[in-house]
Amino acid sequence: MSGFQTEKNLIRTYYTALDKATDQGITQVLRDFTAPQYTWRAYHPFHVQTDVAEISATFWQPFRHAITSMQRRIDVFFAGDNVIDGGQSTWVVSMGHLMGLFDHPWLGIQPTGKMVMLRYAEFHKVEDNKITETAFYFDIPHLMAQAGQSPFADQRGAHNIQPGPQPHDAVMYDDADLSEGRKTIDAIHAMITDLGTWQSGLPIEEELARTWSKDMIWWGPAGIGSTYTIERYAKQHAIPFRAAFTDRSSTGHIARLAEGQYGGFFGWPNFTARPTNGYLGLPPSDRLCEFRVIDLYRRENDKLAENWVFIDLLHFFSQMGVNLLDES
C-alpha cells in the first residue's frame, strides 16, 4: 500500500461536507477542514486568498447561488508525494465537473436556466489531517461558451464537455502500485525535458512522438479547444502557440506527483512568455506574461496518452489589458 488513505479520506469527507453545505455553512466547512495558515490559489478573478471567510463569500456562496442543485462529478482522483520538494509533502488531486442548473448571474455571465458543467481540477496539500494549500483551477470561459457567451471567436480545436479517461479507471480511492506511479512521473519528466527543444529545430511531430502516443488526446481549455492525434495537436495548438510566443521561461511547479497511470502538476506561474506575434485575437506585444496552468495526464505503456489542461486565459488576457468577463 502506498499509504495515502488518510489524505484521500480527508478530501472525500471534505467534498461531501462542502457540497451539502449552504451559505454560512460553507464557511464553517472550510474552517473545519483547513489549517489556520491556509493558501488558496484559484482562477482569475479570484487569485490567491488566505481567509476562508473571504473564499466562501467571494467564490463558493455566489457560485452555489448561481448554479443551483450542484453536484460534483469526479473523473480523476489520486494522491502522491510531491517530487518538487523531494517527497516531503503529500497532495490529493481531483478533476471533473461541478454540474448544476444555471439559474442566476455569476461574474456577469447571464443564466440560461439549463444544465451547465464547470470543469475543474484541484490539488490539495494535506498535513496533520488538515488542508494547508489548495490550487483550484476552473475553466470559466468553458462555462461562458455553454451559456452562449463565449469570448473567443477563432478557437482552433473542438469545444466539448470533457470526459474522464478512456479506461474509466482514474478514481483511485484505493491506493495504486507505487511502481506504476514512478513510471508515470518518468514519462511526465521526459515530456517536460522535451519542452526545452522549442528552439532546437527538431520537427514538432517528431519531438512529440518521443513522449506521446500517436493517438494522444489533448483536452484543452476553452479558447484553444481539444485536439486528437499528434498531427492535429501540432497543427491546432502546439505550432500556433509556439509561433505566437518568444522568450519562454523554463518550467516551474509547486507540486508534481503521480499515482498509478495518472499524474500531473501545477505552477504559479508555470512559465512566462511574450506574445510577440499575437495570440487568440490579441495584437502582438512585448509584455512578459505569466501562465498559470494545471496539467493532468494518463500514461499508457511508456508514453502519455491523454492530457487535461487548465490554463487561466482570463488572467493572460487581463495582463494584456482585456477583461473577458466584461464582454460576457
From TrEMBL:
* Signal sequence segment: none
Identify the domain of life. Bacteria
Alphabetized InterPro entries for the sequence: Cyclase_SnoaL-like (IPR009959), NTF2-like_dom_sf (IPR032710)
The record's annotation in SUPFAM superfamilies points to:
NTF2-like
Task: Kindly give the PANTHER family that the UniProt entry links to this protein.
Answer: ESTER CYCLASE, POLYKETIDE CYCLASE SNOAL-LIKE DOMAIN
Q: What is this protein called?
A: Polyketide cyclase
